[in-house]
C-alpha cells in the first residue's frame, strides 16, 4: 500500500496492456461473424444445399433450442469436415486427477479455512491436458448442477491434440506464462492478468510460449457467464462490453493424426481422427470464446466511508435460478484508490453463506501478509469465519487514513459460489497445504476495554 506518486501514476493501461499477435472482434455476447476466405458464410440462410467452398455447416448449441431469445446461444460453423468424422471414444487413462462428480463420500469435506501453497509445475514435460488437477467442486455435470475448480499446469504445448468439456463452460485465469490457445473459432493469446472463457463443447489446444505455465480454471456445469447488472452504477463501469475480445476465423486443412480429449461427466475420454479439428473456415453466432484484460476493469468503490462488499468487483457472473444468487461470480481485487475515512479499510471479518475460493495472479493480497502467494489459493467455505490476518489488522487499526493506493501491482481474484465445495484427494493432501493457516488469526490483539469507548 502506498500513497506516493499517485498524482502522476498512469491508471489506465492504454492500448498495449498485453501485446497480442491475433485479431479479434470486440464486444460481449454479440452475434459475431468471421470468415477466413472471402464470402465463406452463406448469405441469408444457415444450411444451403451446398455451402460456399463445399464446406459443411455444423451448429454448436450453447443453450437448448427453445431457450428465450435474450439468452439463446448458438453458433454455426462452416468446416471442411464435420466434427463427427472421428473414431470411437475410449477412456483416457493418463490423467486420473480430473474429477467430475462431487457427490460421493470419498471427497473431503471440511469447514476449515484452507490455504494452498503455490502449486508445483511438474518438471517432466506435461501439457495442459495431463497437467490439469481438479481441486474441488460441487454437484454433478450429469444433472447440469454445480461447478468444479481446477488448477492447470503445463510445461509443454499440446501436440496434435485438442481438449473440450461436455460438462460446462471454463473460465481460465493464467497466473504464470501466456496461453496461446487455438480454438475452432480462431486463436487467443491470453497473458497473466487476462482471462479467457471457453464454453461447453468447444475444442481447443493450448500452447505455452513462455515455458512452464500455471493458472486456475473454473468450470460451471450450468448457465453461462454474463456481465453483472450495473443497477444504480449506470450504463458504464466495471467490465465494459467492448473490451471483451472474440477470435476471428482461421483454419488449417491438414491430414494428420489428432486426438480429441473430451471431459465427459467428469471423466476423460479420447478419440482419434485423421485431420485437424481446426478446419472451420467461417463461423457466425453468439456462442463463441472470448478473452478480457483485467486491467480494463473500471473499478467502483466507496468514496466516503465503510468497506463496500466485493460484489462491486464482479467481472462476470454465472447466474443460478435463485435471483441474485450466483452459481459463480468471478470477482477481482484490482489496484485502486482507497479513500474511506473513519473506516477499518481491509476486507472485514465475516462468515458468508456463499463459498469463497481465492487465487493470486501477482503481488500480494490486501488482507493477507502471510503465505497467500501467487499461484497458491485459499478456500473459505460456507459460514467459515475469515478475514484479515493479524498483521493486517494491527496495521489497519493504527494507520493514518490518508487517501492512498491499495493493491498497486497486485491482482487477487475470487470464485464465489452458492455451492459448498468438496475437495479432491489431491487437494486435501497436507503436503501442498499450509497447515499453519489458522495461525494467521491467532494473534489478533484483543483491544476490548469496557471503560473506554
Ligand atoms: O475474504 C476475502 O478476502 C474476500 C473479501 C473481500 C472483501 O473486500 C470483502 C469480503 C470478502 O469476502
Ligand atoms: Fe471473504
TrEMBL record:
E.C. numbers: 1.13.11.5
InterPro entries according to UniProt: HgmA_C, HgmA_N, Homogentis_dOase, RmlC-like_jellyroll, RmlC_Cupin_sf
Residues reported to bind Fe cation: 350, 356, 386
Descriptive protein name: homogentisate 1,2-dioxygenase
GO molecular function, one term: metal ion binding
Annotated ranges, domain Homogentisate 1,2-dioxygenase C-terminal: 297-445
Residues that bind homogentisate: 365, 386
Coiled coil: none
A Pfam family per the record: HgmA_N
Active site per database record: 307 (proton acceptor)
Domain Homogentisate 1,2-dioxygenase N-terminal: 23-294
Stretches the record annotates as Disordered: 1-24
One cellular component (GO) term of this entry: cytoplasm
Annotated keywords: Dioxygenase, Iron, Metal-binding, Oxidoreductase, Phenylalanine catabolism, Tyrosine catabolism
Swiss-Prot/TrEMBL cofactor(s): Fe cation
Pathway in which this enzyme or protein is active: Amino-acid degradation; L-phenylalanine degradation; acetoacetate and fumarate from L-phenylalanine: step 4/6
